């Protein structure tokens, strides 16, 4: 006979905190429900038809005290729960400098995974135990949602946008991956597995996978074939922002705003170049929307991220 479990195994760093938060919420809501039920039953008995209980309006002062006290008590409780839940989520999203970066593209009805060294997977994800994993995700068609119950993580995957998900696996094993957002006819079959391996086993597995060029090298080839090098290299006669070392820096825009050059900014600059024009430059770059797909966008962004000061694109 299998063991009866209240919820799935805990297999990530956030799972324990999430379960504790859910348990406290159940206790609080259960206590409120019990209090309301007790008062309802007590008043129903006390003020039943034919009872001698005194009936009439409460004193005005007492009514105000009860209403104000109950309102403030529930408000403070709601703020406490919100603050606690937010701090739990924000602490889970805290980035680590050596996090393993993996790109995920969702489409009807499959998960396409690409590791930094070029190794690819379909409907499967292999990660090492004890190391933070950073998933950079987007969708080719409709909204999907990356959900692993044992990790207590769920993140919507949106078309036309990048979303991130960070977690640290804590227990080796194979866990089910689901799409938690209805995405079409075969939504129920859009799943896969996440395999958590010991670090040494993961290193051997990654080395044994068929590999092409890494994403940055493939992005460099695209950068040239799409004509980007004609404007963004130092010898170009067209004035365009230089890309060396731009990733992670603050970029001054023509409208006076300042933005961080992260993955989302680089992606938007490729698809919607006239939206956030860099100060000192004109809106002359053409849009590559409909020309490059999600996979090519990932390669181009990976290449631009790899450029450092002094490099020549």
UniProtKB/TrEMBL annotation:
UniProt KW Cell cycle keyword: no
EC number: 7.1.1.9
Top-level taxon of the source organism: Bacteria
Gene3D superfamilies referenced in this protein's UniProt entry, alphabetically: 1.10.287.90, Cupredoxins - blue copper proteins
Membrane-traversing stretches: 20-45, 66-85
Occurrences of domain Cytochrome c (ranges): 214-308
Statement: the UniProt record of this protein carries the keyword Transport: yes
Compartments it resides in: Membrane
Keywords: Copper, Electron transport, Heme, Iron, Membrane, Metal-binding, Respiratory chain, Translocase, Transmembrane, Transmembrane helix, Transport
InterPro entries on file: CcO_II, CcO_II-like_C, Copper_CuA, Cupredoxin, Cyt_c-like_dom, Cyt_c-like_dom_sf, Cyt_c_oxidase_su2, Cyt_c_oxidase_su2_TM_sf
Residue ranges annotated for the Cytochrome oxidase subunit II copper A binding domain, each copy included: 97-208
Bilayer topology annotation: Multi-pass membrane protein
Catalyzed reactions per annotation: 4 Fe(II)-[cytochrome c] + O2 + 8 H(+)(in) = 4 Fe(III)-[cytochrome c] + 2 H2O + 4 H(+)(out)
Function per UniProt: Subunits I and II form the functional core of the enzyme complex. Electrons originating in cytochrome c are transferred via heme a and Cu(A) to the binuclear center formed by heme a3 and Cu(B).
NCBIfam families: CoxB (TIGR02866)
PANTHER family attached to this UniProt entry: CYTOCHROME C OXIDASE SUBUNIT 2, CYTOCHROME C OXIDASE, SUBUNIT II
UniProt-recorded name of the protein: cytochrome-c oxidase
This protein's encoding gene: coxB
